[in-house]
Design goal:
Blueprint lengths: L2 E5 L4 H6 L9 E6 L10 E5 L5 H8 L4 E4 L9 H21 L4 E7 L23 H20 L3 E6 L11 H4 L3 H13 L7 E4 L28 H7 L8 H4 L15
Parallel strand pairs: 1-2, 1-4, 2-3, 4-5, 5-6, 6-7
Helix pairs in contact: 2-3, 3-4
The chain binds nicotinamide-adenine-dinucleotide.
């Protein structure tokens, strides 16, 4: 690609993945509402609030691919989620539709399916069961991606990311963890395949513990290399195992499924 746009580039995933994704394009256009100034020679920065349609239209101009990380990434007040994850997603897809439909990686979440029990293995045909306002906004984004694909031919990989951090941080994340390297390899395949369509993928490494089945997307040729199992002893030593009736054990979305995690305006 000539130019790859990464939104939300100042966040955790943007920070971890921008150098890993550098080989995908001559120029990486980083964007966030927060200013980034530690740019490499092949990076450029455009400050933009996703809720501003005109600014997003200018942001997408000249981009051949988009990795959409920007937005509210946990539960929060509806006004914030609405601006970043609802209006922001519409702004992004409208901008893409008008400007050559660059392929999009859409960062959806486990919280789009958070209310599936952990003892049920689900694949990418699972109907959404969001666990809060944040999860609802992710389901909205998935619907936008499908509609823009069916109606306009816009291609998107919808990635229901589990827990993409340096290491899994608790027992539930042993099932949901995805390493940065595995995510970068996934995104590389997403931009490499000749025809993408609009598949849903679960964003997890090749974990021994899991409740997701990615076999419907084997055709992508993505083979995650890491396994959270190597962190199990460390997590066991660092914290007690949660009780069998704890939300973190019952539900795929863990603590997001409790009403403690609900932020009012
Ligand atoms: N990291 C994970 O494990 C994980 C899991 C599931 C889903 N996701 C999704 O992946 C994406 C990236 O996650 P992250 O962990 O890097 O999150 P993060 O919160 O660290 O980064 C998100 C970035 O988006 C920016 N942002 C927020 N609102 C904005 C707006 N209105 N306009 C422009 N920029 C805005 C923030 O400034 C931030 O830099 C998010 O969409 C998140 O929902 C991440």
């Amino acid at each position: 690609m000539k130019r790859l746009l990464i939104t939300g580039a100042a966040g955790g995933l943007g920070t971890a993945l921008r150098s890993r994704l550098a080989p995908l394009a001559e120029t990486i256009r980083l964007s966030d509402k927060t200013v980034l100034d530690d740019l490499s020679p092949s990076e450029e920065f455009v400050q933009c609030d996703l809720g501003d349609a005109a600014a997003v239209e200018a942001l997408v101009q000249g981009c051949d691919g988009i990795v959409h990380f920007g937005g509210k990434s946990i539960e929060g007040p509806w006004s914030v989620i609405n601006n970043a994850n609802i209006q922001g997603v519409i702004n992004l897809y409208e901008a893409a539709r008008k400007q050559g439909k660059p392929r999009i990686v859409y960062a959806s979440s486990v919280h789009a399916v958070g209310f599936y029990p952990q003892d049920q293995v689900i694949d990418n045909t699972a109907y959404p069961r969001p666990d809060g306002l944040y999860g609802i906004s992710k389901v909205f984004g998935e619907a936008v991606a499908h509609a823009y694909h069916d109606k306009f031919g816009q291609e998107t990989a919808i990635v229901r990311i589990g827990s993409c951090f340096e290491e899994p941080r608790n027992h539930r994340m042993l099932s949901t963890w995805m390493s940065f390297d595995d995510f970068a390899a996934m995104i590389t395949r997403i931009f490499d395949v000749p025809k993408l369509g609009c598949p849903i993928l679960y964003g997890m490494s090749d974990n021994t513990a899991k409740f997701w089945d990615n076999s419907n997307v084997d055709w992508l040729g993505w083979k995650p290399q890491d396994d959270s199992e190597r962190y199990r002893a460390k997590i066991d030593a660092a914290m007690p195992k949660p009780a069998p009736d704890a939300a973190d054990v019952l539900w795929q979305g863990g603590l997001f499924c409790t009403d403690d995690i609900h932020e009012e305006e």
